[in-house]
Structures are given as structure tokens and as C-alpha cells.
Amino acid sequence: MSNPVPPRKDPDQPWRTEGTPPDSTGPPSGRRKMPGGWIGLVVAVLVVFVIALLALSFFNEGTEPTISYTEFSKQVDNNNITKIYSKGDAIQGQLKTAQANPDGGGKYTKFKTQRPSFADDKLWQNLEKHQVTVTASPVVQQRSFLSNLLISLAPIVLLVVLWMFFARRLRTGLGGPGGMLGRKAPPKPVELQPGAQRTTFADVAGIDEVEGELNDIVDFLKNPDEYRKMGAKMPRGVLLAGAPGTGKTLLARAVAGEAGVPFFSASASEFIEMIVGVGASRVRELFAEARKVAPSIIFIDEIDTIGRSRAGGSAMGGHDEREQTLNQILTEMDGFSGFEGVIVIAATNRADILDPALTRPGRFDRIVNVAPPDRRGREAILRIHTREIPLSPEVDLAQVARTTPGMTGADLANLANEAALLAVKRKQAEVAPPDLSEALEKVQLGAERSLVMPYEERRRTAYHESGHALLGMLQPGADPVRKITIVPRGRALGVTLSTPDTDRYSYTEEYLRGRIIGALGGMAAEHVVYGVVTTGSENDLEQVTNVVRGMVARWGMSERVGRLSALPSDAQQAYGLAAAPATLDSIDHEMRRIVDECYEEACQKLRDHRDQLNALAEALLANETLEEAQAYRIAGVTRVKKEEV
Ligand SMILES: Nc1ncnc2c1ncn2[C@@H]1O[C@H](COP(=O)(O)OP(=O)(O)OP(=O)(O)O)[C@@H](O)[C@H]1O
Ligand SMILES: [Zn+2]
């Protein structure tokens, strides 16, 4: 489930700069697919249309004029009628000789008329007397009833078809089950983890403090009676907050596994179905199931999709549906007496935007932060995920842990798996260090792409990456450059990877400026060497913008904007806090000033060290990839290593 390390946006993450391929500047891909349902809709409309036309044609009784019944009787008496056709009291007929239409409009031979129901003339005898051919068909009313029915049904049919069509589209649009309306998703699976495959705390590493916090919940679930006797109430809900891949789902599973209780799992986004009421009823079902087998655990992933602060508004789902679902969860939790033994564990990576109603006492009143692991934690996680993988004796997991700051449990699990895949591909009996370093490369930089690039383009990429790398090396206190490559990877034409020697927890202003300078290094190199810039710096500029926005508007690093959290966070916005226009102007001004200064400095440094820049670019063109030591040697920069704590 884990994803390769996403492009780093957050300054807490390892730093990597990359060129962007030309295709990324085009219009956004991934357009919504045209649903095949449109064809169905068009067909349905056509069918209804044809039915209506047919029904109407039943009534279409030709273009002959309608004459009065008096006029008709007169023509019968005049012996001027050849034949008539009757349908109940409606009569169509033909004259022997044309007559002037008494109602005007020229002469007529064909006509129609209506026999009044109260007429008690001797029409039939009269017609017989004048030898008129009479044809009759069953009473008109029967037919007109049918056609009437069809016609009156048509709009209803049309509405039903439209309704079904839209309901279906909305469902599939949300990634819900694309079934017909009204079909409920199957109830959430009850996971009675069988003893052998139970997830326990032994499967979780690197987050011991979190395990500690969850321990008393395990204890409660194991012996609810003891707690009951003491009248002690347990927390009803625990909120696990942390970045994606830090092991929140794993932890919830492990709590259930340790306590040996059933585990119900649902993702909050599955509740939201656009059709108001469905989410709430699913929540009801889920809680009812869990109560039946209590003590048990309900795990709700991505709680922020329904638990966003109500004031903040949402991009997902109908507002009503979201709110109803959330209310239902809160109602169910309020309904707990505290002795029922159902504990709700929710997970989010946006704890900051949650509705305060969720975190009120008696609800998710215990918030546990799950942080990415430190060096020792990473080593322990690697051990867990290589339990089943034969490792060659040369593999040093401590060393791997040292080179992976910022990586989460999911990243590390992915790394171990990639290394094992490589070893299999190479028909080795064990995973060796080169497999691990190659897997790391793939996880950190993205998979290699086989693009054949023209020489000029490669040369430009070499200068771009060398610009990043050289400035990274020259900047005092910057994260060391680990690898430079001009092999296209993922979306990038080339990558320069920098990671810190040890875990970093906070950043100085100087360090952040260094980062901006390094990130602008690619563009600056193109500017200095070629005099023009390309589209290859899109991603770099994105990172620069993120860092500088933080400096100015979040971390109080600009005198002019001051020590304000000037750009409100989502949570602050929910309370109606927004920056004044004048503040926004200052923020904009300061962001530009800092970036301009950094760009100037980047260009100047590259001009001053042009020989080193050339040397790096040449080496990259020749070798495609440079490792840390090689790169520092070629650039002639001495690497100062930070001491491990
Ligand atoms: N602390 C850890 N110890 C061992 N393995 C871990 C740890 N953290 C993550 N993993 C591995 O990563 C996988 C994914 O983690 P998990 O799904 O629990 O993350 P998550 O925080 O729930 O992510 P998301 O927010 O994306 O749902 C786990 O199945 C496990 O293999
Ligand atoms: Zn770049």
C-alpha cells in the first residue's frame, strides 16, 4: 500500500531537486472519463420520444374538415354519402359529390364529425336506406385509454431513467460501488484475526511511546470486567494523527491483535455516498455489529474527510451527507456507556482541520501523535520487514537506517520489498548491499525511465543538476549531496538528492535560505551558462515557494510581516481568521524579496565557481550518475560530516 516517497514539499523531509520534463507543462492530464451512461441516456430519451409519437398518431385522424352533425345528417338525407367509418361516436366519411364547407374553407369530399350521445335519430336505418357502406372499429375509448396511459407514463419513465442515471454517476464519481441505486455496500468485514496471523505490537517498531499510550486500551479490552468493577471509564475514541505511512492502520490492528478482539475497519470516505442518509445508516450498522461482539475495535481511516471543521467547508461529498454521517458517529459514541467495550480508533493526517466536536471529551478525547521514526526506529522497522528476507552478512541495516532520514515505516517496508525483488531478479540467494542501495534509489528518486535524450538536452540537464549540487555543497550547514543523476526518473529529467546526516527537527533561517538557493541552483545554472531558462524548474520553484511562504507567513522570519501566523491555517480559517489585504501585500513583497536575493546569490556563486560547475557537468555527462564522495571530489569541496548523536 505504501507509495514511493512523494515529491518533497515539506521542509521536514529530505530535500531533492529535480528538473521537470516538458510534458508536465502541458494541460493537466487525467481528465475525467466520459461516462458510458450518456449513451444509455440518449437511447432512453429517443425511446420515450418514439412512444409518444406513436401514441399521438392514434389520434391523428387525417386532415379532413370536421363538419357539424347536422350537416352530416343533411348529407345522409340527401343521399350524398358513399361510406363511413365509425369508432364509437366518432365518424369519418366520404361524400359522393363535393360540397361547400359550411364553416368556410372551400369544398370537401372527406369529412369527420362527432355524433352527440343524446342523438336518438335513426342513423343506422337511414344509412341502410341510402346504401352507405359502414365500417366500424372497437370503441375509440379503449384505445385512447391505452395511448393516454402511454403518454402519461412517458414523463415518469423519463424521470426515472434520468434519476437512475444521475444517481449512478454520482456514486461512481465518488469511487463508491457503481451499482444500481439502493443497493447497499456489503457490511464491513468483521475481522476476527485468527491467532496465527494476528497483528501485534511485535509488528510495529520505532514508535514505542505510541505503543505505550495504547497499552491501557489493550488492557481494558482484555479485562473489561475489572474496569467495570472499579467504575472506571475508558476513553471512547482514540485519534491517531500522523503523516501517511507512519503506521496508524497497523497500530490500530495491533491493538486489536494484542487484546484478541474483533477489528472492524472502514474508511470515512466510503461512508459518503452523495445520497443523503446512506452514510449515517452505514455508521449505524457498523456500530451495531461491533456492539454485538464487544469488546471490539472500530477503526475509521481518513476521519478528516467527514470530520473537517464544519465552518471550513468541504470539497468532498454533499455537505448534508457529510454532516449527517459525522453526527451519526458522534451520536453512536455518545451512546456508549463506557462499559460496552467498543473503542473507536480513528486516523487522520490532518488533525489540524478536524471539527472541534470530534475531539470533545467523551469522543476522540485522546489524541496520539504518530511521528516518522528516528534512526533507531528506522533500523527496528527494517528488521521487522526483513524478517522473512534472507540477508547477506554484509548488509548493515543500521547503516541503511542512517541514510534514510525522513522515511516512514511504509517507505521502509517498500524499500525492503524492492530490494528483495531485485535480488530475485538477479537470481541471488540473498539480498546484498547493492540491492538495497539500488532499491533506495528507486524509492527515493522514482523508477528510471528509458528516454533517449538529445545531447544538447542532456548537457543542459547536466548543468541544471550540477547547479543544484554545487550550491548544496558550497552552502554552509546545508544537507549533504548524496547523489546526482541525469538519468530520467519518474517525472524528472535529472535528480539531485540531498539528505541530512542526522534527523532534523527544526530549521534555522540560514538553513532555509540555503535550501532556497540550492533549489534555485538549477535555474541559475541555466541562466549563467545559457543565458535563458527552460521549463525544467517547475518543481524547483514549487519547493522554493513552499519554503519561502513558510518563512514569511508561518515562522516569523520577515521583519516586515512580523511575528504573525499571517497566512491562516485551515483550522484558523474555519474560525474566520483571514489575513488583511495589507498583510497579504506584505507577504507577497517579502516572499519576492527573499527569493530574488537568493536567486542573485545563486547566480553569483555559480559565476564565481564556474570551473567547478563545468567539472561537475562534464563528469555527469560522462557518468550519468555521481555518488556523494565522487561528486565532492570532482567539485573539489571538502565535506564536513556532522557527528552522530
Ligand atoms: N512503525 C512501523 N513499524 C512497522 N511497519 C510499519 C510501521 N509503519 C508503517 N509500517 C509499514 O507500512 C505499512 C503501511 O502503514 P499504514 O497503512 O499503517 O500507515 P498509515 O499511517 O495508516 O498510512 P495512511 O495514512 O496512508 O493510511 C504497514 O502495513 C507496515 O508494513
Ligand atoms: Zn531542478
From TrEMBL:
Active-site residues, Swiss-Prot/TrEMBL: 465
The entry's keywords: ATP-binding, Cell membrane, Hydrolase, Membrane, Metal-binding, Metalloprotease, Nucleotide-binding, Protease, Transferase, Transmembrane, Transmembrane helix, Zinc
Binding-site residues, ATP: 242-249
Entry's Gene Ontology molecular function annotations: metallopeptidase activity; transferase activity
EC number: 3.4.24.-
Record region (Disordered): 1-32
Localisation per UniProt entry: Cell membrane; Membrane
Listed Low complexity bias regions: 19-29
Record-given protein name: ATP-dependent zinc metalloprotease FtsH
PROSITE patterns to which the protein is assigned, alphabetical: AAA
